[in-house]
Specification:
The chain is of the alpha/beta class and 388 residues long. Helices cover 42% and strands 15% of the residues. The protein has 11 helices and 11 strands. A 6-stranded mixed β-sheet has the order 4-5-6-7-9-8, with helices on one face. A hairpin with a 7-residue loop joins strand 8 and strand 9. Helix 1 crosses helix 2, helix 1 packs antiparallel against helix 10 and helix 6 packs across helix 7. The longest helix is centred in the first third of the chain and has 34 residues. It is elongated. The two termini are 31 Å apart.
């Protein structure tokens, strides 16, 4: 009797250890195995802009988009728990392994930000900061998305104000970090009309355009438009939720691009991308070297001609959530005041985790059946007969 009890306890210990081991690997260690294969891209000295002073040590920026944290309305609670754990684990693993200096979120932080009540919004913001906690000395740059405050037709001052207060961002914001200039733009403010949001945004862009000219050495402009934010000139990086104008994703050629049934669907201006007029205005006024956008949930790399100099490269970053993308990625950006390099980091495949769970379940079942057969003497009887 005691031997049977000891045998059962021994089996139970092994069973629990096996389950705990595979769970620990799939839900924790697997993220380290996959994300350790990513790395910060090296700058190519030949690609540096010789007309701009090198700011020194380059920044390392983690760029992600469309986290779409679920609220109280959409999705099942288990789906919500699963997706948030995946994003949290991938994000925190990247923080541990690669230690970014800057974290860039390209809008649609929330899935239901435009609908939620004040108390729910407070919980939303707290949950975001819990899932995507960053080191105290890191910089966080946030662009607003249509799911955060609504499309242009449904935006109101209250929704805009509460998001801006929560994430320290305006319709247009100028930031310079270690000599690298960022311009953060509210895509819904690029409608082109005279709404409460659009007119101040357009005026701010014109001001920033003059401040950039001053920083570049235009002494006449500096009489009126000097900016204490700009310690040196650096061709700006534009951060926004909507992509700049393009007809569709047919021009994209990326491993995480839109699937074939969506790739050739024509974009609607002001819905899937900025209008042509807004795009031309941004390119003419800001002359960015790099544009980072989200919104489509799929990857894309395109170039846009500038009035002066080399074309601007735009990278549309896919959704960070497995709920929106079967193979999500994020971008790792190495950038200085006169140079940059970008790398696409692939996150763990959900199908791989499911396969590991499936194989483990099958092996455990086979193990239990084998123990059962041994305990009933079936295996012993067959072996004995064979030996006789």
């Amino acid at each position: 009797m005691r031997a049977a009890v000891r045998l059962n306890l021994n089996f139970l210990k092994k069973f629990v250890l096996a389950i705990a081991g595979v769970f620990f690997y799939c839900e924790f260690l697997h993220y380290y195995v996959v994300l350790a294969q990513c790395g910060w891209p090296a700058l190519d000295p030949s690609a540096a802009d010789p007309s701009v002073n090198d700011s020194g040590t380059p920044l390392h920026a983690m760029v992600l988009a469309d986290t779409h944290l679920l609220g109280r309305r959409n999705g099942h609670w288990l789906d919500k728990l699963r997706r948030e754990w995946q994003m949290h684990r991938a994000f925190q693993t990247t923080v541990t392994l690669h230690q970014p200096d800057v974290f860039i979120f390209l809008g649609d932080l929330f899935d239901e930000g435009k609908w939620c009540q004040p108390e729910e919004y407070v919980e939303y913001v707290a949950r975001f900061h819990q899932l995507f906690a960053v080191p105290e000395d890191a910089d966080v740059l946030v662009a607003v998305g249509n799911h955060d405050i609504g499309f242009h037709y449904s935006v109101n001052p209250y929704l805009v104000s509460r998001f801006q207060r929560s994430f320290d961002v305006g319709p247009v914001k100028l930031v310079q970090i270690a000599g690298v200039t960022f311009v953060i733009i509210n895509s819904m403010a690029m409608e082109g009309d005279d709404c409460f949001l659009c007119r101040p945004a357009k005026n701010k862009i014109k001001v920033i355009s003059r401040q950039l000219r001053c920083a570049r050495g235009d002494k006449e402009t500096c009489k009126y438009w000097h900016s204490p934010i700009l310690q040196q000139y650096s061709q700006p990086v534009v951060l926004q939720h909507y992509p700049l104008h393009r007809d569709s994703d047919a021009v994209c050629d990326e491993p995480d691009e839109a699937p074939p049934d969506l790739k050739h669907v024509r974009f609607r201006e002001r819905w899937e991308c900025l209008s042509r007029d807004a795009t031309e205005m941004l390119l003419e006024e800001l002359s960015p070297r790099l544009v980072l956008s989200g919104h489509t949930h799929h990857g894309c790399h395109v170039t846009h001609p500038l009035p002066r100099g080399s074309p601007a490269h735009e990278y549309t970053v896919p959704s960070f959530s497995w709920r929106n993308k079967r193979s999500p990625t994020f971008s790792m950006l190495t950038i200085s005041s006169n140079n940059y390099a970008i790398y696409k980091c692939h996150m763990p495949q959900e199908v791989t985790v499911l396969v590991v769970y499936g194989i483990t379940t099958l092996l455990i079942i086979m193990w239990i059946v084998r123990l059962k057969l041994r305990s009933t003497g079936v295996l012993y009887t067959k072996v004995s007969k064979h030996l006789d």
